[in-house]
Specification:
The complex is a heterodimer.
Chain A lengths: L1 H39 L11 H29 L10 H4 L4
Chain B lengths: L3 H27 L9 H7 L6 H14 L5 H11 L5 H10 L5 H8 L4 H37 L9 H23 L10 H29 L3 H10 L9 H17 L1 H9 L4 H20 L1 H11 L9 H8 L3 H42 L10 H27 L5 H12 L3 H9 L5 H23 L5 H6 L20 H23 L4 H11 L18 H12 L1 H14 L11 H15 L1 H12 L6 H75 L5 H32 L8 E4 H12 L12 E4 L6 E5 L1 H18 L6 E8 L3 E8 L31 H11 L3 E4 L7 E7 L4 E2 L2
Parallel strand pairs in B: 2-4
Antiparallel strand pairs in B: 1-3, 3-8, 4-5, 5-7, 6-7
Helix pairs in contact in B: 1-9, 2-9, 2-13, 3-14, 3-16, 4-11, 4-13, 6-7, 7-8, 7-16, 7-17, 7-18, 7-20, 8-16, 8-17, 9-13, 9-14, 9-16, 10-14, 11-18, 11-22, 12-16, 14-15, 15-16, 16-17, 18-20, 20-22, 24-25, 26-27, 28-29, 29-32, 30-31, 31-32
The chains are: A mainly alpha, B mainly alpha.
Chain lengths: 98, 900
Amino acid sequence: MSRARDVVFLERRVYRHRRMIDAAKMLPILACVLFLFPALIIDRAPGEEPSTAVRLVYFFFVWLSLIMVAATTARALRRAGSGEPASDMSQPQDGAPD
Amino acid sequence: MVAFNTLVFVAIAYVVLLFGIAAFADRRARLGQSRWLRSPLTYTLSLSVYCTAWTFYGAVGSAARSGLEYLTIYLGPTLVFLGWWWLLRKLVRIGRAERITSIADLISSRYGKSSSLAVVVTLLAVVGSTPYIALQLQSVTLSFAVFADLSSAPGAVGWQASDLNQTAFFVALGLALFTILFGTRNLDANERHHGVVTAIALEAVVKLIALLAVGVFVVWGVGGGISDTMRQIEASPVADWQPDAGRWVGMTFLSAAAIICLPRMFQVMVVENEDERHLSIASWAFPLYLLAMSLFVLPIAVVGLAVLPEGSNPDLFVLTLPLALDQSKLAVLAFLGGFSSATSMVIVAAIALSTMVSNHIVIPLWLAMQSQRATISGDVRNVVILSRRISIGAILALGYTYYRITGGTAALSSIGLVSFAGVAQILPALLGALFWRGASRRGAMAGVVTGFVIWGYTLFIPAIGLLPDAIVQQGLFGLGILRPQALFGLGGMDPLVHSIFWSILLNTITFVVVSLISFPTPLERLQGASFVNVFDRSASASGWTGGEAESEDLLVMAQRLLGGREAQELFQDAARAQGKLGYLPDPTAEFVDRLERELAGSVGAATAHAMVGQINGQSAVSVEDLLAVADESAQMLEYSSALEAKSAELEKTALQLREANAKLTELSLQKDAFLSQVSHELRTPMTSIRSFSEFLMEGDLAVDDRGRYSRIIHDESIRLTRLLDDLLDLSVLENGQVVLNTQQAELRDLLDRAEASAGVNDRETGKPRLRIQRVRAGEAIQLSTDTDRLTQVFINLISNAQKYCVAEAPQLTIAVREQVDSIEIDFIDNGDGIPERQQSVIFEKFSRLSDQAAAGSAGLGLAISREIMQRLGGTIAYLPGQGGAAFRVSLPRVGQQRAA
C-alpha cells in the first residue's frame, strides 16, 4: 500500500522535474521576445513613440520579473532533481524513492 | 577636495588589501578550509569580470550619447544565463569532464586535439583582448588624471601625457605582479585560483556598491527622488532617443556571444567552476547583478548632462559628478569601483590568455625545440610555469604598448564592442562543437579564419585607424564591392552591425559548408561524440589503442608535468584499480586516456595528446582500429543473439514437454476414474440381479412376488445391457472406428422421430410429461448426414430435459436457425439450468449432476452426443443464460439445401 503511494509520488516528482526543465528552456525564448520586441516596433507616428523613461521602466520591470521566474525555476529544478542537474536521459533512475 | 596623494595612498592601500585577501584565500584553500570560497555567491560575483571599467564608466557615457542602448550590453548576457539549461550547463559539464583549460583548449580538444586550431583561436583571443586591456589601463589613468587635475593649483597646467603614461605603466606592472603571484601559483588549471577568484569577488562587491552609491546619491541627493528624476529624464536630450532596431538586435546578440566566447568569461565560468549546481544559482543571480549595475546608469547620465558644464567627457560622469558636487568620499569610492572593474578584468584576462599562449604556442614550440625525446630532460612544470609568467608579462606589455600607440584616442565604448565582435567569431565553431557531431576541424578552422579576416577588415583595422581613407572610401584595390563599411554593396548600415552581419554570416556558412564536404579524422569523431553526448555517455570511447608505451616512461613524463607526488599517486591509484601492487599499472588504453586527460589539465589537450603520443609511439586511434573494434563488437552481438535464440528454443521445447507430461498425467487419472466409475455402474444392477435371483432360487414365493422379482431382474439386465451398449458405442466413437451411414432426410422428420422415441408421454395417462414447442415451418431443411446418429443426439437431449427439468410444467423449446455456414438447433428447457462451474464437466463420461433422477442413465448420454457431433463435423455445446438448461447443436451446412 505505502509502496504504491511511493511510486505515485515518484512519478509526480519526475513529472514536475521534466516540466521545470521545459520552463527553464522556454524562459530565454520569452526573454528574447520581451527584450527585442519593443525595439522592433518602429512604424509609429512621430511623437507617439514611448518616451525613454517609459521604456526604462518597461525594461527594468520585465528584467526583474524574468529574474524572479528564473530564480523560482532554478529552485524547483534543484529540489526536483535532488540537486544534480540531470540530463534528460538519466532522469528516471535519478529520482530514487527516498 | 581630495589630495592627489591621498588618492594614491587609498589606491595602494586597496591593492594591499587585495593582495592580502588573495593570499589569505589561497592559504585557506590549501588548508582545505575553503567552504565559503566555493559558495555559489563567490562564483556569481566572480562572473562580474564581465563588468569592466568600460561598463563602469562607459555605460554612463553610452547612455548620455545614445539613450538606452547601453542596456543591450547587459540584456545579451541575461539571455544567455536565463537559457543556461541549453548551453552553459553543457559547456560547464564538458569543461569539467575533459579538464578544459581555456576556450582555445575546448575548440582544439573537440576538433581532434588540433594544435593549429588552438593557435588560431589563441591569436584571435589575443588580438581581440589586447585593445580591451589597453582600454582598462586608459580608464584607470584617466580617472587618476581627473583627481590630479583637480588637486593641482588653479591655473597650473594639469597632467602631462608623460604622467599618464607613467601611471599606466605602473598600473600594468602592478597587475602583472599580482597575476603572476596568484595566477600561476599552481600549474593544474583545474586546481582553481582561489586567491584570484576571492579577490575578484571582493572587487565585484566594491564596484557594485560604488555604482549604487553614486546612483543613490544622484537620484535622491541631486535629482530629488524617483519621480523628479523621471521628469528630469523626460526633459533631457536623452528623452528623444529611439532605438535603432538593427543596432539593438545586433548589440544584444554581440554581448550574448561575448559572454560565451570571451576568454576571461570562459575562465571564471567554466575553468574556475567548483560545482555545476552553482550555475543554476548564477542563472538568476548574475542577471540580478547586471540589473543592479545598470539601474542608475541613465539617471547618472541625465543628471551629469544637466549639472556638469558642456563638453565634459560623459565617460567619466561617475567620477566627475560627485567631485563637482563636493562629495569627495563618494568620488574616492567611485574611483575604487572603476579601479576594481579595470583590474579584475585585466587579471582574469591575463590568466586566461597566458594559459592559452603558454599551452598552445610556447610549450609546443619548446617541445619541438628539444632535440631529444621529452623523457630525458628535467622538470617540465617549471618550464610551463615560467612560460605562463612570461606570457602574462608579455600580454600586459602588449596592452601597454597598444595604449601608448593609440594614445587613448578611441572612445571607450566603441573599442569594447570591436573587441566583442572579434571574439564572437568563435561562436559558430563553439556551438558546432557542442551540438553538431558533423562539425569538423577543417570547417571550424575555415569558419574562424573567415570571420577573423572579415572582422579585421571591416571593423578592427578601420576602428584603430590603420586603414587608409582611400580604401575606406573606394574599397580594396578600388573595388566598390569591397568597401569595408559597405561590403558587397550593402551600405547604409551601422558599421558595427554591418561587420557583425557579414563576419558571422560568412563565418557560419563557411564553417557549415566545409564541415559538410570534409571528412573528419577518427579522433575528431570520437571527441565529437563525447562532447555532443556528454550527458549520456557511460563509457567514453578510448582514443588510444594498444600502444607500446612503457608505464615507466609514462610515469617519468607525468612526474615532470604533474609533480612527483601527484603523478605517483595517480599511477598507484590506477595500478590498484587494475588489481596490481606498486606504482606501474598496465598501460591499457583506458589508463593512457585517463593520464592524457590529467595532463591536459596542465598543458591543454593538444599538447598532452602530442606528448603521450610521443611516448606511446603510435599516433592514437586509426580508422582500422575503429573498424576492428566495431567488428569485434558486432561479432559478439551476433554470438550473443545466437545464444539467445537457442535458449529461447530450449525453453519452448521444455514447455512443450511439460505440457505433454501434464496431459498424460491427466489422462491417466481420467482412465482410473473411468474404470472405477464403470465398475461402480456395473456393480449396482449386478447386485440387484444377484439378490433377486437368490430370492427366486429359495422357492416358496407367492406368484405375484415371483413375477415382480423376475421383472426387476429383467429391468436390471436391460439397464446393464444398455450401459454396455453405451460403453461400446462410446468406445467405437472415440476410437474413430464408426462408419457413418449418410442419408438424405428432412430435419423436421428427424425431430419428429426423436420426440416419439424419447417417450415424452406418460405411460399411464398418455399425457405429455414434457411439453415440446417447435416451429415446424422453420424445420423444413434437407440434411445429408448420418440421420440415425443425429436422431440419437436429439433423443438424448429431449430425454435429458424430461429427466432433469424440475419445473412444475416442464417445457422444451426447440428452435432451428440457419446461419451462413451452419445450422443451429437449440434445445432450451424451463428448468433451473446447470450451475456455471458444472457446465464444463457435463460432457464428461459419467458426469451426473446429482443422483436425484439418475434412473436408467449412466451419465454417458452427453459424452456420446459430443462424440457423435464431432464425427458428423458439428458441435454440441451448453448455451448459458437462456433461463433453463440449453444446448446448441450445430451442423455444418456443406451439402445441405433448403427443402423446396
